[in-house]
Design brief:
The structure is a homodimer of 366-residue chains. With 366 residues, the first copy, chain A, is of the alpha/beta class. Chain A has 2 domains: 3-239, Type I PLP-dependent aspartate aminotransferase-like (Major domain) (Aspartate Aminotransferase, domain 2); 241-361, Alpha-Beta Complex (Aspartate Aminotransferase, domain 1), CATH 3.90.1150.10. The first copy, chain A, has helices at 14-31, 44-55, 69-80, 98-107, 129-137, 158-161, 187-195, 205-213, 223-239, 241-261, 287-297, 324-340, 349-358; strands spanning 37-41, 61-66, 84-89, 113-117, 119-120, 125-126, 142-146, 165-169, 180-185, 265-266, 276-280, 313-317. In chain A, the strands form 3 sheets. A 7-stranded mixed sheet of chain A has the order 1-9-8-7-4-2-3, sandwiched between helices. In chain A, strand 7 (142-146), helix 6 (158-161) and strand 8 (165-169) form a beta-alpha-beta unit. In chain A, helix 1 crosses helix 9 (223-239), helix 9 (223-239) crosses helix 10 (241-261) and helix 12 packs antiparallel against helix 13. The model of chain A has no long low-confidence stretch (mean pLDDT 96). Chain A binds chain B through residues 1-2, 4-6, 8, 10-11, 13-14, 41-46, 49, 76-77, 80-82, 169, 171, 177-179, 198-204, 219-225, 295-296, 301, and chain B through 1-2, 4-6, 8, 10-11, 13-14, 41-46, 49, 76-77, 80-82, 169, 171, 177-179, 198-204, 219-225, 295-296, 301, 303.
Chain lengths: 366, 366
């Protein structure tokens, strides 16, 4: 935050070009790619739109894995641009099975792209991206992955996994305020941008790539956020990427252990995301009231459910700057609030279960 | 800057809804409109693109006032989206004459919109927006104004002037880092969004307007920048809008007086922008070398010229947080650098001429 409050260097200067070059190096490590990582002044949805408009042409067919609010967004973007989406509908809370996508690819052999979330934030389920990449690699179909709550959370090396387009945003694993979106393209995705005939201007990826070659950006960049990004990448690199992924996994397991110990079911038990956990609330509890009580009276903000899940789940994020004691506080607050709302809760039971997992992350005694 | 380094409140909370409501009120004053002012996570070019895609349909005709790099950008956006731009080409450094636009409107009676900059940043010329608004008001043609270096710099009340779309960005008069774009639409521009058939998603103005009705935004907003915006608007309101405009005018006149006293010609002498001043350098001076010397050796960053003007002009910004002593420093640095480069310069002459104007802004003796 302090770095973002520093001087706003003019963006067409050698001083800022050096910042861009430094973050480019860190972003390539983060994405696991030798390709350029474009830095856009936008939130993640802008990069999602750009992935559609830079790769496809009017009337193209595409397969969309729709297992939640963000999967649905791919469909809406396709529709807005005259691309024909074929949805693989996945029950909220479940991960797509690769066979379902294979069937869709067989049914729509002309599909130019498969759009998916690595981690579907609305349900806290993790889709099997590497398996989908393998399916797409065998065909002339691009795999486009919204990695907004996955990049920097799980080990998802773009080049090695065979992902064609990978997207993230500043406000999740990167610990920054929202306002930056990032996207990288594989060589075959770059080739597709040469053929694509959908209109784009602000999100013109080829123009942004030319910008990177000149250590610049196509349009005025969000300078202060990029100054913060430089620090965030330095922090993550110092921690070590594998340690970062292990931390997310540990916090997620601690949260799931706590929920289970308290007798709750998870919305996504089979393929849970290490970014956030969705807990199904008992039907006797008014989830919306619980959520408001936690936020407004106890000062602990959870995320609620959306659409059909409104009032039925509560979501705990454990990515980015969330640490072990944030998880402890969240679980303790949940125990206390549920107790206050008349649920049968053994106070401390969830926290204890979480601690049993969090203990793994303790530094050695010296 | 300190406000932007504060906690990043979650954007779907009453606390952040209150921030959005407060900035909405300030933005309406700034724009001089009773309409909603949309707040986009993007730089200004994104709002320019949105103005094209939300108002027009494929094959529509439009008139573009092209008097510099940013005028040219309207043409490029139109072309990217299959809109047919008819350019009113204006010599760089000049303002468009309303008759030129009237002629274009007569020649292309089907033109759906006129696109123009209020202040063309690349040449530092001010276009006569109120006169153009009057021309458009008499027809079924929308006037779309890029006010990125004009809103908050000059008195340009949108509703009273009859502007249909007005755009600005965070990094100019609003004194913030880049990363936010703002746009407001007149009732007849909103009506046009109902008819428009160009594709859009991230920059879907109607979706953003629904967001404002719910004290929210369509997509994740750039929270920290909006926290800064709240403070910036408070500062401007405390200064008083007319005082803000008078300050910009005074700094601009001081800069022009200095340049003239030093024997230089201005690129835009007839209709100069109060946002920035472009000074034509003598042919004997290598402008690019002068610019680099000022920036890299003296620590004073000017803007150079673009395209055909590269190396031929030097631009001084005097908007936003630039104050009287920034102008003094810029002129003194220019005098010293020119002297060092062998130009005949009477040291202090430009500064003296600037001071004679800046004296107008001194507070009264008490």
């Amino acid at each position: 935050m302090a770095a973002m409050a520093g001087p706003v260097i003019h963006h067409r200067t050698p001083a800022f070009a050096a910042v861009l070059a430094e973050v480019q190096e860190g972003l390539r490590e983060l994405f696991g790619t030798t390709q350029d990582v474009l830095v856009l002044a936008a939130s993640g949805t802008g990069a999602m739109e750009g992935a559609v408009t830079n790769l496809l042409s009017p009337g193209d067919e595409a397969i969309v894995v729709n297992g939640g609010k963000f999967g649905e967004r791919w469909t809406k973007i396709c529709q807005a641009y005259g691309v024909r989406p074929h949805e693989v509908v996945v029950e909220w809370g479940r991960a797509v099975r690769p066979e379902m996508v294979a069937e869709a690819l067989d049914a729509v052999p002309a599909a130019r792209a498969v759009f998916v979330q690595a981690s579907e934030t609305s349900t806290c389920a993790l889709h099997p991206v590497p398996a989908l990449a393998e399916l797409c690699r065998r065909r002339d179909t691009l795999l486009v992955v919204d990695g907004i709550t996955a990049v920097g959370v799980i080990d998802l090396p773009m080049d090695r996994s065979g992902i064609d387009v990978l997207i993230t945003g500043s406000q999740k694993a990167l610990m920054l305020p929202p306002g930056l979106a990032f996207v990288a393209l594989s060589p075959r995705a770059w080739a597709a941008t040469e053929q694509s005939r959908l209109p784009r201007f602000y999100f013109d990826f080829r123009r942004e790539r030319r910008g990177i070659a000149e250590r610049s950006t196509a349009w005025t960049p969000a300078i202060s956020l990029i100054n913060g990004l430089r620090i965030a990448l330095t922090m993550l690199k110092a921690e070590g990427w594998q340690n970062v992924y292990a931390r997310h996994d540990r916090l997620a397991r601690a949260t799931r252990a706590a929920a289970t110990a308290l007798g709750f079911r998870l919305l996504a038990p089979e393929s849970p995301s290490p970014a956030a956990t969705a807990i199904l609330l008992p039907e006797t509890i008014d989830g919306s009231a619980l959520f408001r009580y936690l936020r407004d009276r106890m000062g602990v903000t959870f995320a609620g459910g959306q659409d059909a899940l409104k009032g039925k789940i509560i979501r705990l994020a454990h990515l980015g700057y969330v640490d072990a004691f944030d998880v402890v506080v969240a679980i303790a607050a949940l125990e206390l609030a549920l107790h206050h709302f008349g649920a049968r809760v053994e106070l401390g039971r969830g926290v204890g279960a979480a601690e049993a997992v969090l203990a793994e992350g303790l530094p050695p005694r010296t």
